[in-house]
Design a protein that fits this description.
single chain; mainly alpha; Arc Repressor Mutant, subunit A; 3-stranded antiparallel sheet
């Protein structure tokens, strides 16, 4: 299976050819793969190129090297790469707000799966978490009960990728709660006065009753504070961006005007 040279880099081609080779030879998770020399001969490229391509596959979690035993294929975490990049410390505020929105939409979307798959044991565990949340309310452990409740909801779906995503995205929610607490507090107060807040206990009551529609309405209200915050903060960011662009435009116009004045003055002096 020789490879052809084209516009992509040689290492890119070898990486793709290796994946094709593994598939054609029915190699799967746990299977050993040929050594670098054998693969280089099979693909008709230098060993150094194969080594670089294998290194990429190792970074992706597709290959695991065992000391003195060679390399075996592994199944990488689908969301593994996201763990490295979904970090509120390095993301823009706009991206953080979009991720928050996505997380809310996902949790509302799994409602049907929760009601279809939940067991009496799951309800018992949720009840214990809610009791813990009442004890921890408004103290330093409140976020633990918050995370535990929603993590359990994700696990009930039986979808490992959804559960893993919850673990990855949770730091975003924690970051928003901490960084923007002064924004969230007045929204919470207003919603509390109007009786629109839905607690974990409220969500659990609907689950116990088997009332999916009531649960959906409640989970919407449970996250409404973040939806209101996102709309308000997005508008502020747009206004800030517009003001910044306005200042840049005004400075450029001012610089151009001064350039013209200086040009005219110099021409007048020369004349």
């Amino acid at each position: 299976m020789k490879i052809e040279i084209n516009q992509t880099t040689l290492i890119d081609q070898v990486e793709d050819s290796l994946l094709t080779y593994f598939k054609k030879n029915d190699l799967g998770r746990g299977d050993s793969i040929p050594n670098e020399n054998s693969l280089a001969a099979e693909l008709g490229v230098a060993r150094s190129v194969v080594r670089e391509a294998l290194s990429r596959l190792k970074m992706m979690g597709l290959i695991h090297a065992r000391p003195r035993k060679g390399m075996v294929l592994t199944e990488p975490s689908i969301l593994g790469g996201m763990k490295r990049v979904i970090d509120p410390r390095v993301l823009s505020e706009e991206t953080i707000l979009d991720l928050l929105d996505f997380r809310i939409a996902l949790e509302i979307g799994i409602s049907t799966d929760i009601f279809r798959k939940i067991t009496p044991k799951d309800i018992e565990e949720l009840s214990e978490i809610v009791k813990m949340g009442i004890v921890f309310e408004n103290n330093e452990y409140a976020l633990i009960s918050e995370s535990a409740f929603h993590t359990k909801l994700y696990k009930i779906t039986g979808n490992k990728i959804i559960s893993e995503f919850q673990e990855i995205i949770h730091p975003i929610l924690v970051y928003v709660k901490e960084k923007f607490k002064d924004y969230l507090k007045p929204i919470n107060i207003e919603m509390s006065k109007s009786g629109r807040i839905a607690t974990h206990a409220d969500l659990l009551d609907f689950i116990k009753k088997g009332d999916e529609k009531g649960y959906r309405d409640a989970i919407e209200r449970h996250f409404e504070v973040y939806k209101i915050f996102k709309v308000n903060r997005s508008q502020e960011l747009m206004a800030e961006k517009a003001e910044s662009e306005k200042k840049v435009y005004e400075k450029a116009a001012s610089d151009n005007f001064m350039f013209i004045l200086n040009f005219i003055a110099n021409e007048y002096i020369l004349f």
